[in-house]
Design brief:
By secondary structure, the protein is an alpha+beta fold. It has one domain (8-62): Irregular (Factor Xa Inhibitor), CATH 4.10.410.60. It is built from 3 helices and 3 strands. Strand 1 (14-16) and strand 2 form a beta hairpin.
Length: 66
């Protein structure tokens, strides 16, 4: 059976942590930052974690070797 291909768009967006969580960078921190509060921008800097539901699908279909 041939190797499975990783979805490259998913590989650029998600990373897998050692304990099996899926980590991603939060959106809305690229441009038009003047109208966003400092508190909001500070919270957006931190990584987000995908909730438990779609983690299985991401690991199986999008990042098979992650």
């Amino acid at each position: 059976m041939p190797k499975m291909k990783t979805k490259k768009s998913a590989a650029k967006r998600y990373t897998l942590t050692a304990d099996g969580k899926v980590k991603y960078k939060k959106m809305n921190l690229r441009h038009i930052l003047t109208k966003k509060s400092s508190k909001r921008k500070r919270k957006l800097r931190k990584a987000g974690y995908v909730s438990a539901g779609p983690v299985k699908m991401i690991k199986k279909k999008l990042l098979p070797y992650g």
